[in-house]
């Protein structure tokens, strides 16, 4: 499987990854405790984690709005296919509230391949540090104590990230307060600030191997797309071009070049195109 690392490395100057952690439980309690974490992939390596009320789009947006008051808004946000993150919804070819929030800010969502957490290795590694150095290392009596100590954890990790990173200066960074007049729930495409959604997918097999019905396929937003059986078990990089209403599927060659292998019409149902 050729992971399109060269292609991903070219997707914007600022990239961030995000994930939910949990649920966790305090000793003697069956109350769920959820966390959300983010990790900047470039140009710096800062990681932030916060306790949230639940694993929902509303909590993710609330977290990002607060985070981006003082941290730069990325060009690309990398995440898994959780329905709270705007993918894997019950209705085919629809996106969720977080996706609209990102598109209206000019942030391109990048959804990793399902059941492949290593595709989001930056934030998964940060989650591991959180578990080892915070959740499994400290003792807590209640949620208020968690919230106090988690601030210390974030500060300590920020200091650590400055030690291991060159911290290239970001020129003209954007923050959430630069978008005070924006309707984050807008669904009209002509008001979006970016018009792309990216997906990483592994081509899976349907039919028996070697059988005449054998073929490859991927699933994007609940829609199955057929591909050649020569692509089975390979990664493909997919882009939904919203303005053109089409899906572009490509592979990355050994020398890091992106080669288009298929293009077809694809329209997201709950976007207003007129």
Structural features, described:
Helices cover 23% and strands 28% of the residues. The protein has 274 residues and is of the alpha+beta class. A 9-stranded mixed beta sheet has the order 3-2-1-4-5-6-10-11-12. A hairpin with a 5-residue loop joins β11 (246-252) and β12. The longest helix is centred in the middle third of the chain and has 22 residues, at 143-164. The termini are far apart.
What is the gist of this entry?
With 274 residues, the protein is α+β, with helices and mostly antiparallel strands. It has helices at residues 5-9, 57-67, 97-105, 121-135, 143-164; strands at 15-24, 33-42, 47-52, 76-79, 108-111, 196-202, 204-206, 215-220, 223-227, 235-241, 246-252, 258-265. It has 5 helices and 12 strands.
């Amino acid at each position: 499987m050729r992971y399109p690392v060269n292609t991903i490395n070219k997707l914007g100057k600022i990239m961030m990854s995000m994930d939910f952690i949990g649920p966790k439980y305090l000793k003697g309690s069956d109350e769920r405790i959820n966390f959300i974490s983010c990790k900047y992939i470039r140009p710096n390596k800062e990681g932030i984690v916060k306790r949230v009320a639940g694993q929902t789009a509303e909590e993710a947006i609330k977290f990002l709005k607060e985070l981006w008051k003082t941290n730069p808004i990325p060009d690309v946000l990398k995440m898994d296919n959780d329905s709270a993150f705007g993918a894997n919804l019950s209705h085919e070819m629809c996106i969720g509230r977080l996706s609209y929030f990102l598109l209206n800010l000019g942030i391109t969502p990048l959804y990793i391949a399902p059941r492949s957490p290593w595709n989001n290795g930056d934030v998964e590694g940060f989650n591991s540090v959180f578990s080892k150095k915070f959740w499994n290392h400290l003792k807590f009596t209640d949620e208020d104590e968690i919230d106090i100590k988690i601030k210390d954890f974030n500060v300590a990790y920020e200091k650590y990230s400055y030690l291991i990173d060159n911290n290239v200066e970001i020129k003209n960074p954007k923050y959430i307060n630069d978008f005070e007049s924006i309707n984050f729930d807008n669904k009209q495409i002509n008001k979006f600030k970016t018009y792309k959604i990216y997906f990483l997918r592994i081509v899976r097999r349907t039919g028996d191997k070697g059988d005449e019905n054998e073929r490859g396929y991927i699933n994007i937003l609940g829609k199955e797309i057929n591909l050649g059986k020569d692509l089975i078990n390979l990664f493909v990089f997919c882009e939904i071009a919203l303005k053109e209403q089409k899906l572009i599927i490509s592979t990355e060659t050994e020398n890091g070049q992106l080669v288009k292998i298929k293009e077809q019409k694809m329209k997201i149902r709950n976007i207003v195109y007129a």
